Amino acid sequence: MSLSPASGIGRFYKHSAKIIRFVRHGCANRPFYHIVVMERRKNQHQPVIEQVGSYDPMPNATNERLVALNTERIRYWLGKGAHMSDPAAELLGIAGLLPVHPRTYMNAWRNRKAAAEAAATEAVKSAETA
Amino acid sequence: MLIVRHLRKLNAPQRLQLNVDQTRRALSDANLQYDKDPQPLFTDAETQRLLQSMTQLQLEKVFRKRTVADNSTETKFMTTAQLEKEFLLTIEKAKKLLQMPPVVQIKPDTERVISKDPALKDFDDSKYVFTDISFGLRPSERKVVVRDVDGTLSYAPLETQKRMNQLYFPLDGRKSYTPRMFSDKELLQRCLDEHKYEFVLDRLTVQYEPYETEFHNISAKVFTHLNESKQFDLLRSTRHFGPMAFFYAWHRCIDDLLYDMIRRDYLYNAVQLIALSYKIHKVPVEYGQTLSQLEALQPTPAERALEELRSCLQKPSEKGIEKEIHAAIGKTEQDFTADELSLKFIEQYIGSEHALKKVQLELAVQTLKELNLEKLQLFKGLKKAHGVQAS
Amino acid sequence: MAKLWLMPFMMSNWRASAPQLAYYANAVRTPSAVVFTRNTSFFNKLPAEDIWRGVTAVSNAGKKRGRGKGTGKKVAKDLNRGQTIGLGKSNCIWPGLNAPIIRGNELTHQQKQSENLDREKSIISLRDSMSNFKLMKLNPIDRGWSGSKMPGRSIGPPDAVGEENFNLFDTRVLENKIVFIMKGNMGRKRRYSVLSVTGNKSGLAGFATAKAPEVRTALRKSKNRAGQKLISIDLYENRTVNHDFYTAFGKTKIFVFKKPEGHGLVCHRAIQTICKVIGIQDLYAKIEGSTNLQHIVKAFFIGLMRQKSYEDIANETKLHIVERQMAKNGFTEIKASPLQDLKISENDQIIDFMQFTLGNKIVLRKKKTPPYYVNTKGHYLFECKAEKFRNQSIVRLHKLVNSYT
């Protein structure tokens, strides 16, 4: 195997900052993320310390986005003082593992607002045509 | 002649017609369901003992040659002591292979909401499914939660849970899609018509959990078909025989199986089957005494198999003349006494209103009786000729 | 100057004809257009046959060394043979060509006639008969190890001796070679040596070498001699050897392994052929050392003859022999038990069966040398890319077979 294993062979430095973050795998136009623990300062494609989950952002046939989380290890690393990247924190918030991230609320509010505006313009248009 | 006259007396033509009708009604329903939870009765120690004994343990059937990728052989030296240990291990292994898939009720799917957050409504355009992949959890313990588009966080429905388990922790042989054998009715029917019951049941056990509706429906279909084709011997000494017998006993259609057992001279099993049916339907007939008497006379299937394995070690000279006679006749003195006891019990059952196919059963019992009588005479004659003392 | 120019031409072309001279005279006037030509060579001096021989034939010295044996055999075919002008594919009357223009008082016209179907065939057969070189056509089933060579080919059962006939036997050639010996008056005397093996496909086989000045005689002699040297061989379930064994002859060492049903013959081609003749279907054999064919055959037969039955081994070691079959879910079957039991305590070391049957010999397992490109950067990058697609073909096939999306 030429690629470094997903389970992690990255070197562990005692005093450096660790982060729980996404690593983009997959290929062009087809993202797939590993949720990993790694040195904060390192590039995402360096060997990781540990993989703690995966995230498939493209909805599957039944319109679901699949996320796998090794909750036991995530809690361990958070307890150790590992940082969180924003997307990862958002995802864990949606999962109910952490408090929901403010950005998720903001997105929800924006989506609702956009939908309402679209509905309003639609209503006006239909009224005009009528 | 005597038997036939006796039978005629027993079954007036009208009654016969009635019986046939009853049987048909019982089996015409392709989807026989358990009306209440069968699990407590099935996992009951006594029931399990009865079912295991009925299943029997034929070593050549349990360890029959299968088509596998690795068909290598390993030749070894062994001492007698090691061989003894190996025999015990073999029996243990056989028992493990014969462990029955449980018969349980269909599990209802209930929605369990963890939290509702209306402020999260429309946070995304598709729902999120989160699976806990922590190490060392059993599939049933593994939590799968769903965050819906409207912001509700809830436990996933059983179907999703099974799908996620199969995705992240695939079970060997289980497919993520429904195999065409189960989705296409024609294919399943073809399997059944070719009497591939064990294959269908094995695949069913792998593909579905015992509490799933499909498991119940398809296994009911297989057992019904089996009851019509009467190829019960195909499932003997497999892990599906127990659930099959339990199914027939539960749905009051044991007669065909009973007939097969009598015809093959498995009288002890026949008694057990009747006792099981009495137990399930709480019929006020005392069967415990007969069972315990028979139990004392007959070895369990495991003991019998162990005996068979150990007999390989004995040299021909060590075997006594008595054993040779037993081998020739196929029965011991104890067996004859046990047969008498069981026949009495079976006849009692046939006489009662629970039996549906009285003519057939009566005929089978009479034939067996005559055969046994001949065997007994031969047995006694042989013993006398060889000067073996009656024990 | 002009004279000086002309001199060499005059000298060399003193036989040149008049017009040529005139040409040179012209050339003299314009010196730049002079072309040097040599108008005589072996090409216009010698007849065609001689020239062709110069290209295709071999010199006398070469002939002595045995060169050019195949030359001259394949002659160019004369495609004109069997054909006459005016007669062709379409059977036609051409007045003036293959028919008179005026027949009696009438003028003949061009006219088509019924086609002659046999013409083409007869021409082809004529052309075929022109060359004497023919490839031996062999049915694929009858072929040996290589083409139409003898080794590996069947030469039928040995001839019957009196009442004894070898109906169920089949003989196969293992080696067919030319051997020389020196004779006092004849010098090097050449003979053919044939090694063949015969057997009835159920445990009876024999092998023999025979020499004769003719191939056919040598084949017959060795076949019949093999029939006279039959050895009975113990087979396990009529398909493989009794047990693994090690055998050697000279510098040839063979490790033979018993294999389960359906494994096939995975061994040297000579051993394969012998096994087929004996009736062995499943076997693996590894040869170490020399692969001299006669030694392989001898070593293999010695090994087969030295096999022991399970009963003998059990009595010798005073242990039970059991066989565990994976196809039977690891069921252990007792194959043989000793006549009297030796009491062995739990702690005693029990010998390994394979070690016992191989006589404590171990097969030499050489490490494979990796290809030269393994440590290159390009290969590393290729592997990185290929790794992402490692399951793709399997998944695609699976989807196709089970027809789901």
UniProtKB/TrEMBL annotation, chain A:
<dbReference type="InterPro" id="IPR023803">
    <property type="entry name" value="Ribosomal_bS16_dom_sf"/>
</dbReference>
<keyword id="KW-0496">Mitochondrion</keyword>
<dbReference type="GO" id="GO:0005763">
    <property type="term" value="C:mitochondrial small ribosomal subunit"/>
</dbReference>
<dbReference type="Pfam" id="PF00886">
    <property type="entry name" value="Ribosomal_S16"/>
</dbReference>
<dbReference type="InterPro" id="IPR000307">
    <property type="entry name" value="Ribosomal_bS16"/>
</dbReference>
<protein>
    <recommendedName>
        <fullName>Small ribosomal subunit protein bS16m</fullName>
    </recommendedName>
</protein>
<dbReference type="GO" id="GO:0032543">
    <property type="term" value="P:mitochondrial translation"/>
</dbReference>
<keyword id="KW-0689">Ribosomal protein</keyword>
<keyword id="KW-0687">Ribonucleoprotein</keyword>
<dbReference type="GO" id="GO:0005743">
    <property type="term" value="C:mitochondrial inner membrane"/>
</dbReference>
<comment type="similarity">
    <text>Belongs to the bacterial ribosomal protein bS16 family.</text>
</comment>
<dbReference type="GO" id="GO:0003735">
    <property type="term" value="F:structural constituent of ribosome"/>
</dbReference>
From TrEMBL, chain B:
<keyword id="KW-0687">Ribonucleoprotein</keyword>
<keyword id="KW-0689">Ribosomal protein</keyword>
<protein>
    <submittedName>
        <fullName>28S ribosomal protein S22, mitochondrial</fullName>
    </submittedName>
</protein>
<dbReference type="InterPro" id="IPR019374">
    <property type="entry name" value="Ribosomal_mS22"/>
</dbReference>
<dbReference type="GO" id="GO:0005763">
    <property type="term" value="C:mitochondrial small ribosomal subunit"/>
</dbReference>
<dbReference type="GO" id="GO:0003735">
    <property type="term" value="F:structural constituent of ribosome"/>
</dbReference>
<dbReference type="Pfam" id="PF10245">
    <property type="entry name" value="MRP-S22"/>
</dbReference>
TrEMBL record, chain C:
<dbReference type="InterPro" id="IPR014721">
    <property type="entry name" value="Ribsml_uS5_D2-typ_fold_subgr"/>
</dbReference>
<keyword id="KW-0496">Mitochondrion</keyword>
<dbReference type="Pfam" id="PF03719">
    <property type="entry name" value="Ribosomal_S5_C"/>
</dbReference>
<dbReference type="Pfam" id="PF21251">
    <property type="entry name" value="Ribosomal_uS5m_N"/>
</dbReference>
<dbReference type="GO" id="GO:0003735">
    <property type="term" value="F:structural constituent of ribosome"/>
</dbReference>
<dbReference type="GO" id="GO:0006412">
    <property type="term" value="P:translation"/>
</dbReference>
<dbReference type="GO" id="GO:0003723">
    <property type="term" value="F:RNA binding"/>
</dbReference>
<feature type="domain" description="S5 DRBM">
    <location>
        <begin position="187"/>
        <end position="233"/>
    </location>
</feature>
<keyword id="KW-0687">Ribonucleoprotein</keyword>
<dbReference type="InterPro" id="IPR018192">
    <property type="entry name" value="Ribosomal_uS5_N_CS"/>
</dbReference>
<dbReference type="GO" id="GO:0005763">
    <property type="term" value="C:mitochondrial small ribosomal subunit"/>
</dbReference>
<dbReference type="GO" id="GO:0005743">
    <property type="term" value="C:mitochondrial inner membrane"/>
</dbReference>
<dbReference type="InterPro" id="IPR020568">
    <property type="entry name" value="Ribosomal_Su5_D2-typ_SF"/>
</dbReference>
<keyword id="KW-0689">Ribosomal protein</keyword>
<protein>
    <recommendedName>
        <fullName>Small ribosomal subunit protein uS5m</fullName>
    </recommendedName>
</protein>
